Structures are given as C-alpha cells and as structure tokens.
Amino acid sequence: MNKKTKPSGTERAKRKYRDNLYTAHRYVLYNYWWQFLKIAYEEKRKVNMKKYEDWGKLDEIFSQSFTTWWNKNWKKLFAEKTASDRTSKFIMTTEATNPNSIKLALETYRLKTAFKKLKGEKELTAEMISKVLPKKFKSSAKEMMYKKKYSYTKCDENRFIIDFFFHHFPEDDTLRFEKENKYNNRALKKLHKQAETILDNVCDCKFP
To answer: Is residue 91 located within the same domain as residue 119?
Structure first.
C-alpha cells in the first residue's frame, strides 16, 4: 500500500492499532458506540449492565472523556492479537459500518433533542438556538445564522438541521442531502430512526 494513500475501511480494520495489537473496527466507531451509550445513560434508558460489566459503572464511564476511558480500557475490551483474530470481548454486529452514516444519525438525534427544548417558541434567534445546542456546535450555529441572515421558526427544525450540516460538516458527509431538495426531510427522518435503532441496540450491548 502506498504510504500516502488513506487506507480503506477494510484495510484500516486489519492494520495494527497500538503495541503490536489490532482492533476489529475503526477507532471512530468505538467513539460513536460510547457516544450513543452516553445518550442512553443521560436519557435514563434501560441499559443491560450485566453485558457492560467490563466497561465499568456508567456514572464512572461518563465522568471522563472518551479518550481517557479508551486509553484505560481498549486493550482489555477490544484488542486482538492478529489481523484475522476476532476474539475481543466486544465486537460490532458488522464490519461494513459506514462511519459517516453513524455520525449523521448521531448528530441528527442530538439536534432534534435540542430543538425539543424550544417548544412553544415562534421565532428562533441565533442566541436561542445556540443556547440549547451541544457545546461543540454553539459557535458554528451562530456563525451560520449570522451569515445567512435568516430567522428560523420551530417549523423550520429540519431546514435548520440540513443548513447546519452543510455549514458544519465536510462535503463528503452531506452528499445524501441537496439544498432545497424535497427529499431532505425524508432523509432526516431516516437518520433519526437509525439513531433510535442504534440506541435500542446499545442498551443491549450491540453496535450499531
């Protein structure tokens, strides 16, 4: 493989991760698993803790960043000795998972959850929207709204989310959307449903 060529998903899955050990899946996918589990925890969903026993207690898991938790636990939970080995304690349900799809489903769910806090408001200003968004989105959302000079209403929830995706994420992540496309609402509905399915799965220690 050319060193300057970015590995494909399959090649990436087979390469050594660290300390002469392998992981069955890409690092970012483990991050998304953790993020979805955190949502389930925050929403007080019923999580099968017997299956997650080796991860630690939920309140302890989420009292730290994913990176900190990962560095403490990846070897005992996800490490494998060879590229073809699939003997780690926690393996995902498929090796063909599209990280971009998972990311958009995760962020669609987060944004729609944030909008629920604005119920009853008629016109939504940049300050109002950024106040309820996850911290990492606040400045980007304000920047987008000031640049567009457009005021959103509660009925514009999907429009805001799609506009935000185009503004915040790289172009490759938004190929499923087209500006002013009548199918965008359908795409968002599908992503939200995907997120709900993933949340149900992670509660039973399955991902995605």
So the answer is: no
| Residues 62 and 106 occupy one common structural domain | no
pTM value surpassing 0.70: yes
Q: Residues 116-155: pLDDT tens digits?
A: 888 767 777 888 888 888 888 889 888 888 887 767 776 7
In whole angstroms, give the CA distance from residue 199 to residue 112: 15
Q: How far apart are CA 126 and CA 43, in angstroms?
A: 26
- The three-state secondary structure class of 105 is helix
Find, among 164, 167, 135, the residue nearest to 152 by Cα.
Answer: 164
Q: Is 208 inside a domain boundary?
A: no
Considering 95, 114, 130, which residue would you say is the last residue of a domain? Answer: 95
Angle at which helices 27-42 and 184-203 pack, to 10 degrees? 80
Number of domains the chain is built from: 2
Q: List, in sequence order, every residue forming a beta bridge with 153; answer none if it has no partner.
A: 123
